Amino acid sequence: MPAPAILFPADPLNPRRPDPHFAWEARTLRELGGEQHLVDHDALLTGDVAEAVRRVPRDAGPLWYRGWMIPSADYASFARALADRGANLLTSAPGYASAHELPGWYAVFEGATPPSTWIPLAPAAGRPGPEQLAAAVARLGGRGPAIVKDYVKSRKHEWHEACYLPELSDLAAVGRVVARFVELQGEYLAGGVVLRRYEEFARAGGGGGTGAVAEPGDAPVDAPVDGPGDGLGDGLGAGRSGRPSGGSSDAPGRGGTGERPMEARVWWLDGDPVLVGPHPDAPGQTAEPDLTGVRPLVRALGCRFVTTDLASRADGSGWRVVEVGDGQVSDLPRGIDASGLLSSLLAA
Ligand SMILES: Nc1ncnc2c1ncn2[C@@H]1O[C@H](COP(=O)(O)OP(=O)(O)OP(=O)(O)O)[C@@H](O)[C@H]1O
Ligand SMILES: [Mg+2]
Q1: CATH class of 5-90
Q2: Atom of ligand 1 nearest to the CA of 281
Q3: Is the pLDDT confidence value at 60 over 90?
């Protein structure tokens, strides 16, 4: 079988070049002798899938994608359009949805990840009703802190306004934060509303992996203090544009008591870790997670190329899976050595 080629999003301003966000990855791939083709991400999101894949040669064979997030339904159209041209994405549409959306991976990772429940909700369908929210809260045990996100992304940069739920038993407060989350996600709400029990993770700066002292519920990121809309490249930009989160480390600090929780992003190919690196929010942080418990779960998920974001519990009781993602759309912090990861993709 020929080595897979890798698809990158084209630069909207210069469609013959990769998008600047992925240019360094594309350059690394070229240095490794790998082949690449460009796709039009904006055309894909507007439903013009023929235009999106126009530059992919016919019979291009096996393909990986490395680019901005794509809603699962659009990924399915993308895969079909490529198949019609004699090319096949090595991650199938069902496989993509399983890794990309929390309900797709949750059952496999249950017990290793914060307890979670969800309410399916179409974008612009309003907010979940009070009975639906009360039932979801009851499924999570009815009390204690939690967070809200959609099937793919949180609004962690609006932590107190649209992410953190200090006390589930305060249903009115839960309703307010969830409503604000849904309102801010707008038409980009992915799948529905997810509630997850909040767990305290070790924070950077604590040394020795045990973490610094933080107040429960401290924002996990240096959230912008305020400001209209979303900073370019933040987690929300991701929701809006289907783009993965970039760094937020340049955002103005909130000045909370704690440092951000330390997360490692582990890249898995065919059940083996091929890169353990920092989370893109904190590209300078390194952690060495214990992968013993996670490996069988990744294998059970059965998706070829995925990421797991791992955080160490603040009480030192072990590593937790904060999030699973499809490896094709997980952000890779710039400056990291991606040659091993890309070589593995070429050899897969
Ligand atoms: N259950 C939880 N308990 C404690 N903290 C949490 C929990 N879920 C999320 N967080 C914190 O909020 C942050 C954002 O959550 P999550 O990773 O699920 O959302 P996201 O928007 O998809 O982030 P990204 O794609 O940038 O990794 C996490 O990095 C973590 O610090
Ligand atoms: Mg995350």
Answers
A1: alpha beta
A2: 26
A3: yes
| 18 Cβ closer than 6 Å to some ligand 1 atom | no
pTM for this entry: 0.90
Q: Where are the domains of the chain?
A: 5-90, 99-112+260-348, 115-198+219-256
Tell me the C-alpha distance between 348 and 346, whole Å: 6
For domain 99-112+260-348, give the CATH superfamily.
Answer: ATP-grasp fold, B domain (3.30.470.20)
- Ligand 1, residues 149, 151, 154, 248: which to mutate, most atoms within 8 A of Cβ? 154
Tell me, what's the pLDDT at 125?
A: 87
**pLDDT tier, 214 (very low <50, low <70, confident <90, very high otherwise):** low
Q: What is the number of the ligand closest to the CA of 202? A: 1
Q: Which residues contact 202 (CB under 8 A, 6 or more apart)?
A: 209, 210, 211, 212, 261, 262, 311, 312, 313, 314, 316
Ligand 1 centroid–CA 101 distance in Å is: 14
Whether 128 contacts 205, CB under 8 Å: no
**Ligand that comes closest to the CA of residue 280:** 1
